[in-house]
Amino acid sequence: MSDLAARKRAAREAAFARRAAAYRVEGPQAVHLARWLRAHPGLDVAGYMPMRTEIDPLPAMAAAAETARVGVPVIDGPGLPLRFREWRPGCALEPGRFGAQVPVSGDWIEPRIVIVPLVAFDRQGHRLGYGGGFYDRTLARLRALGSVTAVGFAFAAQEAVEIPIEPTDQPLDLIVTETGIVVPG
Questions:
Q1: Contacts of 124 (CB under 8 A, 6+ apart)
Q2: What's the per-residue H, E or C state across the chain?
Q3: Contacts (Cβ under 8 Å, ≥6 apart) of 111
């Protein structure tokens, strides 16, 4: 295992523990995300269906669906970018790869805003994901097509001093937590 891979694995383990502790805390989690999305009406949004201890974007996604199309990720296979199938509150869902729920049917969308789940983030806009590279490939593809805003969504406790990165890692444009918004810089 390379030094970078070992550093990423250690960072993931520590971040999972912080996220699990934050997940147990009650209270509204998507208030700042919903507010930020309301300031960008009409732009297609990609959210995600929360799994395990991920922070829940569904209330903000439901609010965004009032003025824009909202999609959720569909994994077509290893090494491929994600595609986003249109989601609406109450739509029929089925298990997708890795157990995440996906809409049974719906149009495919090309989002202008991508809400990105993550394991950890830093103030420079770097994120640590699960290691599959799906969001990195997807953001690279979307950025090649035009303007897209990558919004990391996480508990504030998931912040790390520094994230080990490699050249293919795509940066976040901002990070929204239950306590506020972090603009990388």
A1: 162, 163, 171, 184, 185
A2: CCHHHHHHHHHHHHHHHHHHHHHCCCCCCCHHHHHHHHCCCCCCEECCCCCCCCCCCHHHHHHHCCCCCEEEEECCCCCCCCEEEEECCCCCEEECHHHCEEECCCCEECCCEEEECCCEECCCCCEECCCCCHHHHHHHHHHHHCCCEEEEECCHHHECCCCCCCCCCCCCCEEECCCCEECCC
A3: 43, 44, 45, 46, 71, 84, 142, 148
Q: Rounded to two decimals, what is the model's pTM?
A: 0.90
Q: How far apart are CA 68 and CA 54, in angstroms?
A: 24
Count other C-beta atoms under 10 Å from residue 63's C-beta.
18
Strands 101-103 and 93-95, bridge-based pairing: antiparallel
Q: Which residue has the tokens 């523990």?
A: 17
The model's pLDDT over 134-183, given as tens digits with 9 standing for 90+, comes to: 999 999 999 999 989 999 999 999 999 999 999 999 999 999 999 999 99
- Cβ-Cβ contacts under 8 Å for 25 (sequence gap 6 or more): none
Amino acid in position 176: V
Domain span at 169: 3-182
CATH of the domain at 8: 3.40.50.10420
Number of domains in the chain: 1
